[in-house]
Amino acid sequence: MHAVILAGGKGVRLRPYTTALPKPLVPIGDQHAILEIVLRQLSAAGFDRCTIAIGHLGEIIRAYVGDGSQWGMSIDYATEESPLGTMGPLLTLRDRLPEEFLVMNGDVLTDLDYADVLRRHGRSGAPLTIATYARKVHIDFGVLTTDASRVVAFTEKPSMDYRVSMGVYGVSRTTLDDYTPGLPLGFDELVLDLLRAQNPPHAYEFDGYWLDIGRPDDYDRANAEFTSRKSLLLKGA
Fold this sequence. Notes:
Pfam families: NTP_transferase (PF00483)
Strand order of the largest sheet: 5-4-1-6-11-8-12
InterPro entries: Mannose-1P_guanyltransferase, NTP_transferase_dom, Nucleotide-diphossugar_trans
Domain Nucleotidyl transferase: 3-227
Helix content: 25-40%
Organism: Streptomyces albidocamelliae
Number of strands: 13
Order of helices and strands: EEEHEHEHEEHEEEEHEEH
Strand content: 25-35%
Mean pLDDT: 89
Structural class: alpha/beta
Largest sheet: 7 strands, mixed
Protein name: Nucleotidyltransferase family protein
């Protein structure tokens, strides 16, 4: 199985941690970088090949990861000369990828079964599978519903439930056929194009442990929780 890790971003939201380190190499706990955790998880799940899309401070990632042999994987790299968006790097890699493969952000901390995402993607027949997570968003204001300048409803500081993208996807290579290599392609653009074509993505619903380390609050939480969650996150790795 083949995974592509997107690790080319500048990590602006996570400054000052990312001033000298690329975001996937920020430390979690006392011994591990987030990218190391991800690679150990992928290897334990049966992934034997991985391509890392690098950009900002990418040579540090290349020096840290090497050829992947320390995790029993074969790892190669794709360098973004300019930002290509979430899905844009895949276009230049297309000929190096199998028919179905996993794509994920390099700053995800989760106990998601990556192999199962890819298996379920293959069975679904969908062009794209999106791992999703339930998030509750608290609104710190009174919310008004208006109609023709009249207030018709009011809710004090409501909570709203959403299914959000976890930054982990199963992708079919043919899904990329109509896009031009070298041009930016965002995840949002791809999803909207598929919806317009009435070829919707498949949702893989997950309710385990997930944090987006790109958010400062979640990064701090990950470090606070890692010791107690280590056996969950690195089981079998």
